[in-house]
Write a structure and sequence with these properties.
The structure is a homodimer. By secondary structure, the first copy, chain A, is of the alpha/beta class. The first copy, chain A, has 11 helices and 8 strands. In chain A, helix 1 crosses helix 11 and helix 4 packs parallel to helix 5. The relative contact order of chain A is 0.15. At the A-B interface, loops of A face loops of B.
């Protein structure tokens, strides 16, 4: 990426900033898009957040996150579906047509049952998402999150699921951290053509500082980021590329300095 | 498992014991088999270790570990192959026909090239393994080890590789910790019929205490161990089941007390 036209800052990357600060920081740095998180948006309110990004001329590449569908009881599963309807509302009001789904873990040991619950919940959300012009991006998470964050763990599995629904409503979000290890990642990216709703970059540091909050800046790890980006391009995705990094060390930095570093690394490694 | 006839203690599980202590401990507890590690065998010497296990009437279910094939230079790759020939020798002298392969990480970012190096190395070892009556068990490791331990990360990938070689020499070792998350694990276990050279049990604790040394005792985590064991049985594997757990907390326990706990959990959960 020789310029920043496709760069989007996922706001979790600079969590030392609230929505207002992140919007202002992106404007200062010439970053044209932002990925928002529901809980940070809630601090300021959806309408005020929406106005801020609109007034700054920023695009919203996605809202994070819906999902967490499997639960032990029908009532609890219904509550989660209702919450996802609110997330769809919020996405539409924030001006993005992509809601990222982290599908959730099993409530017990039964992965198969939990995966069926994910399928059922997406089916239940489909008409509501369609009416609101919001697409659901199933994000396969790295298998090390299978027990506590997502029973959807490979791109193949995410596509097997997405393909059971219309392509204009359900697709996938591809994050290099979650898929880089997969022997089938390149053919599955090719297969994802027409279903790619987001592409996230970061890096896998060796040794891994922390399962959840030890992701690296692009270039600090072992992921062949450019190769994956080119594969995603070749599959016809030309939308925003979110930098999404959870890293305690980066969260301790000055926000503007970190965003400058992100822009540099984006140019060199994505 | 209502009795212990298929139980094998992988000696890394009780690393507070050396080979002699582990052999004596197994004999005391009525555990009929042991999985040995090269570095622990080296402390005592191969011949003395072999005599100890033979005199105690223990079977050796496997030797850990060969592998670590990919390297930046031809000379270094050759050195690794030579070391694996020594591991084959040791396995034969210890009375086991299974050498477990942890295939190793890439020397750089190129996973595809590293995977080709693994394929080439196994091909180079094939005649030597065959002559010595030792089978090579490719162990797919959890994808979170892709960067530092193994570029072979799924059972499907391990089988795709194994099937390029004769079934009487190259197969797979299936460890529940490494494969439980995989949406394809059951069909791949069925496919592995005739190639299963080992089955390892333990558990995945939530939250994970440590990537490498935070595995749990059977029953302490979320893995459907019995379901996987039954799938392995149905695929025609009726050999030893190794308990292999790396866990700092367990390593601080009295060895006999830990082995008793392992036997209990084996009966209840495997």
């Amino acid at each position: 990426m020789h310029d920043l036209t496709r760069l989007s800052l996922n706001q979790a990357t600079i969590r030392q900033w609230d929505v207002r600060q992140a919007v202002e920081g992106c404007a200062r740095a010439g970053v044209p898009a932002i990925g928002l998180w529901r809980e940070r948006v809630a601090e300021l309110g959806v309408e005020r957040s929406a106005r801020l990004v609109r007034d700054a001329g920023l695009a919203v590449s996605s809202l994070c996150r819906g999902g967490f569908f499997p639960a032990a009881t029908t009532a609890e599963r219904q509550r989660r579906i209702d919450d996802n309807r609110r997330a769809i509302d919020e996405a539409a009001r924030l001006g993005t047509d992509v809601l990222v789904l982290v599908c959730g873990p099993a409530p017990d040991r039964d992965l198969q049952a939990a995966r069926a619950m994910v399928h059922e919940a997406i089916g239940a959300l489909l008409p509501y998402a369609q009416e609101h012009g919001v697409r659901l991006a199933i994000e396969p998470l790295h298998p090390m999150f299978a027990a506590d964050r997502s029973v959807i763990v490979t791109l193949k599995q995410a596509l097997d699921l997405a393909e059971q629904f219309p392509a204009d409503v359900v697709g996938v979000a591809i994050d290099v951290y979650h898929v880089w290890w997969d022997p089938e990642v390149l053919p599955q990216i090719a297969r994802a053509a027409g279903r790619i709703l987001g592409f996230h970059v970061n890096d896998w540091i060796v040794p891994l500082p922390d399962v959840l909050n030890g992701r690296g800046l692009m270039g600090d790890g072992v992921i062949e980021i450019r190769k994956l980006r080119q594969a995603v391009d070749a599959a016809g995705y030309h939308g925003p590329i979110e930098v999404e990094i959870f890293n305690e060390r980066l969260w301790a930095m000055d926000g503007d300095a970190l965003l400058e570093l992100i822009c540099d690394r984006f140019r060199s490694w994505v």
